[in-house]
Write a structure and sequence with these properties.
Structural class: alpha+beta
Strand order of the largest sheet: 11-10-9-19-20-21-22
Bound molecules: fe (iii) ion, calcium ion
Distance between the termini: 62 Å
Helix content: 10-25%
Length: 519
């Protein structure tokens, strides 16, 4: 069925996979692949734009839910094209990469040599006649340029079972998006949910092995709305907890599994994450660990710090619920980012960009979730509320640098929330040091609802909060040098297909005055 006689090293000739920082010895090559069915079932994706290019991704999987995606244990040559037009008449760059069995036949090409601040189209081919769908992505502006505007969406938390990914269909039709920041929970490892009746089901039990995670990603990536979103815009991917296990923290899971044992699972999960994400070779696992945090610069307008709030944090205190009094047990030396990432962020905040976007996963601002009628505060311990010393250090960094231009993008809680991070978390009605926009889930939590009464209680207990809503959707940020405008978007139902997208609220931020304002 496939030619095993070709030495792949001979074919590679020092390019292809070597460019991805990964070298292989003579793995077998399927020199002239012939597919009985479409190998591009999982779509295409682009990611991490730079002024001269971006990553393009695909994975060959003619039978995506079968072991190995229905592929033989051989590397397969894949040709790629990047063009200035969607008809591929003006090819800007092209080449050949290999889809290796070691990486589930995924392809990550770091395209370079493109022009800044331009739209491009890309596609892949393999075998005699298989062609992927066409994706499109924007390159970032040149390093010294001050672009007039940028448009960045924020989305995540896409639990497959409780709802359709309709919000992604709408996102794929958003005009002029430069980028989507994905705050994580791209897959959910488990099947348990408190979301009522599932509208569709995971295949298989809770993920543990590499094959389990690969199949879970494949099932999610078959979703046509998700495929459409990736084809329409480049993503900056991160991960949160459910790419591995609910509420994991460093080498610890929530069940007290011995760390050495949990780490084996995390290694498998991280490999599958890399295999399915349009990220650069710098984010490929090394000895099982992914260095996920990185920066994306959009000229002089925006510096985006993509953060990892899972891999280096201290264990969560008091379990996941945020029990009463738990906040008093916090130890000022506890870390959310780990020392190296904390120093890296402080260093990067010294740039001259007009805006700093800290793109991360869990809520930074004080968020008292006590039931109404009770007097004692309750803070969710999986968020920065469980790491108050780390939050104080973050605030101090921003204050010491006299930065008024810090905006934080957050996810995880399956709610839209807009508010500010106060200078002192004991006085949440005091001066603000940063704006925080928490984007709700694509589908996690199911339909939800406005729950107005509970929202009113929450706003009363949290004076730093301007908006809270428990429906599904995403946010879009329109960014210019003078102002930052945010549209909070939602859909009323994910339990049925094709629900329309609506705007819930609009906010603006002044780069000289931290804290969002109702627009
Ligand atoms: Fe989630
Ligand atoms: Ca989460």
């Amino acid at each position: 069925m496939y030619d095993t006689s070709v030495d792949r090293r001979a074919l590679l000739g020092g390019a292809g996979l070597l460019a991805a920082g990964l070298t292989f010895s003579a793995t077998r090559v399927w020199a002239q692949p012939a597919f009985a069915s479409d190998p591009f079932t999982l779509g295409v994706a682009a990611g991490d734009p730079a002024p001269d290019g971006f990553v393009i991704w695909t994975r060959l999987a003619p039978q995506p839910l079968e072991p190995n995606g229905g592929m033989p244990m051989a590397a397969v040559p894949v040709r790629w094209e990047v063009a200035e037009d969607d008809g591929f008449r003006a090819i800007a760059r092209s080449g050949q990469a290999f889809a290796p069995p070691e990486l589930a036949h995924s392809v990550h090409v770091e395209v370079g040599g493109l022009k800044p601040a331009r739209r491009y189209w890309y596609r892949f081919r393999t075998g005699s006649d298989a062609v992927s769908l066409t994706g499109t992505a924007m390159t970032a502006p040149a390093a010294g340029a001050l672009p007039e505007k940028l448009r960045i969406a924020v989305a995540g938390c896409q639990f497959y079972q409780p709802g359709y990914f309709t919000a992604y269909r709408h996102l794929s039709q958003e005009p002029d998006l430069d980028l989507v920041f994905h705050y994580g929970d791209y897959i959910y490892e488990g099947n348990g949910n408190g979301d009522g009746t599932p509208v569709r089901r995971h295949i298989g039990e809770e993920c543990q092995s590499l094959d389990d995670y690969r199949r879970r990603y494949a099932q999610y990536k078959l979703d046509p709305d998700l495929i459409a979103a990736h084809a329409a815009v480049a993503f900056a991917m991160s991960f949160d907890d459910h790419e591995v296990d609910n509420n994991w923290a460093g080498d610890h899971d929530q069940d007290g599994t011995p760390p050495a044992q949990f780490v084996l699972r995390r290694v498998a999960a991280m490999q599958a994450w890399y295999e399915h994400m349009p990220v650069r070779a710098a984010q490929a696992p090394r000895h099982g660990a992914v260095h996920m945090y990185r920066r994306l610069d959009y000229g002089q307008l925006l510096r985006m710090h993509v953060m990892d709030t899972r891999s280096y944090r201290d264990p969560i205190l008091c379990g996941q619920g945020g029990e009463n009094g738990c906040n008093t047990k916090d130890d000022p030396t506890r870390t959310m980012l780990g020392r190296a990432q904390e120093a890296w962020l402080a260093d990067g905040l010294g740039s001259t960009a007009r805006w700093n976007l800290i793109a991360q996963q869990v809520l930074v601002m004080p968020f008292d979730v006590r039931p109404d009628g009770t007097t004692e505060s309750v803070f969710p311990q999986d968020t920065w509320n469980g790491y108050r010393g780390a939050r104080r250090r973050l605030v101090k960094t921003v204050v010491d640098r006299k930065l008024t231009n810090v905006v934080i993008a957050t996810g995880d809680a399956h709610q839209h929330a807009v508010g500010n991070v106060p200078a002192d978390d004991r006085t949440p009605d005091g001066p603000a040091v940063a704006s925080e926009f928490m984007a709700t889930s694509i589908s996690s939590g199911g339909d939800g609802g406005p729950r107005k009464r509970r929202q009113q209680d929450m706003l009363r207990h949290n004076p730093n909060l301007l908006l809270l809503n428990n429906q599904r959707g995403y946010q879009v940020h329109d960014i210019s040098a003078e102002r930052w405008d945010t549209d909070v978007k939602f859909i009323e139902k994910v339990s049925v297909r094709n629900a329309p997208l609506k705007i819930l609220a609009r906010f603006s931020v002044d780069p000289k005055q931290p804290g969002p304002q109702s627009a």
